[in-house]
Amino acid sequence: MSNGAVQNIRGVVGETLMEAAVDHQIAGIAATCGGCCACATCHVIVSPDWYDRVGPPGPMENDTLYFGAARRPTSRLSCQIDLTTALNGLQVTVAT
């Protein structure tokens, strides 16, 4: 959460992390563009322990992060992270 509190949520395999965050009303995830990779209002910082499993941003996401967010080395847009069983336990911080 953006206030530093830890919150565990459950997502569904096949949905995005952004969708799960919106479903659980996670503070700081506005998802203004609805998952179109255009606004960076779902920007999260992936825990370094998880970044290799999540992977780096693609070209469009990279551009959106460059122009619309206070980017960090493990920044991702949660709308571009598809939930899989391999990501069970994923840890992220909402970017502020």
TrEMBL record:
Residues 1-96 form the 2Fe-2S ferredoxin-type domain. Keywords: 2Fe-2S, Iron, Iron-sulfur, Metal-binding, Plasmid. GO terms for molecular function: 2 iron, 2 sulfur cluster binding; electron transfer activity; metal ion binding. It comes from the Bacteria. The keyword Iron-sulfur applies. PROSITE patterns: 2FE2S_FER_2. InterPro entries: 2Fe-2S_ferredoxin-like_sf, 2Fe-2S_ferredoxin-type, Adrenodoxin-like, Beta-grasp_dom_sf. Belongs to the adrenodoxin/putidaredoxin family. PANTHER family: FERREDOXIN-2, MITOCHONDRIAL, FERREDOXIN/ADRENODOXIN. This is 2Fe-2S ferredoxin. It comes from Sphingomonas paeninsulae. The lineage of its organism: Bacteria, Pseudomonadati, Pseudomonadota, Alphaproteobacteria, Sphingomonadales.
